[in-house]
Amino acid sequence: MKKRILLAMALFALGAGLLFGADPRKQPGFYRDTVGDLENDPAWFYPWYLYKEIHPVRHGPPAIEDYFKNQDLDFGKPYASGQTKSRVKLAAVGDIMAKTGINSRNAAHLLEDVSTYLQQADIAFGNLESPTVPGKPTSVFPKYNYDSALVGMFKDAGFDVFATANNHSLDQGPEGLVKTLDYLDQIGIYHVGTARTQQERDQNIPILDKNGIKIAFLAYTFSTNGRKIPPDKPWMVNRVNFNLIKEEPDLALVGKDIQAARQKGAEIVIVSAHWGMEYEFYPPARIIERGHQIIELGADIILGHHSHCLEPMERYVPKNQAGRGLSEALIVYSLGNFIPDHAALEYKTADMLGIDLARGTLEDRDRIWIERLEIAPIFFYSRLMPPGRFEIIRTDRALDPVNAKAYAFLDSQNFGQLQQAQELVEQVLVPQGKSLEDFSPSH
Fold first, then answer.
1. What is the tens place of the pLDDT at every residue in 257-268?
2. Which terminus of the chain, N or C, has fewer Cβ atoms within 10 Å?
């Protein structure tokens, strides 16, 4: 039965290709008019989903593209005359998916090109897009599970905090969710967004004190793919339906948690948001509006994911300046895939985002500000033929001739893909008048 359903979906996808043609923007009302939720969407969502997996939607409405192209991401400019006392570097990546064919035995090279950047950050964050049940092997769509030994490698590579609230949180059931959190505790990775008890959900907000700056992490997902959160345990997954179309989502839980984090001493509050539309490079207007609403509730930074492709960043000045850490907030609509389970180049292209926070005085006031953003472009390389190799490659390093020896395993076609990936990162993330070099990492 499952094979027949998948075959029917594939045929629908082909039909959708004929219907939509090469430019989905010709159907803007249709292709944006979905909540992207397997539980609540109409049947036409499925062929559209499959169509996009093969034909990425690399453009959005012109007004939205122009809005992001005209962003000023030079956060540190107003604070150039400030006296800096301390700094914290946050490294953030997007969806860490359970990849077909990958496991701890064939992943020796997986993280070697990115681990230095992650380890040198004071805090490294990612969205763990899969349960990890010890003793179970890697499994992929429709029920993800991560080889726990591989998740242990992420810890060794430098990760400190994982968001566990996403549409795959319940892929291994409530028991798998609990075992995932037990394992993350065992290896020493903070987690947020799912919980084993009501008390854990309400009280155990990760607040990391680094170089005198206290940073809290919160996480929410718009969906659990139709897998029901146990009615007697609604606290197991932080679900907030950001993607609603004809009504406003209830953001009360987000506001409550932001205030709780502040009461516990957090100076900077980071919200991880699993939201938006898969395979689309620009967020719908309603997601932009909800990003602003979350900032107005008191968040300082939003780290978005779920689209499995990059989406732009926004510098947003909140109207509500009371009781917040940053007077200018950062919204990252999607960090893309850190580890994809997709074939298209667009979904194997992403970035590691560096956020340099500074604390100091300006006009005799104690302030915290974003001093600089860094963009480390990455591409997921996979060679399935023996001996096989999976690796997350820093394209800025691989394309520099001085590093040719380290990337001798790549051929001319691979380098062509890396060049395309790096150009895509610049196209989506870098505002007009700037270049990717303006955001180059210091290491």
1. 999 999 999 999
2. N
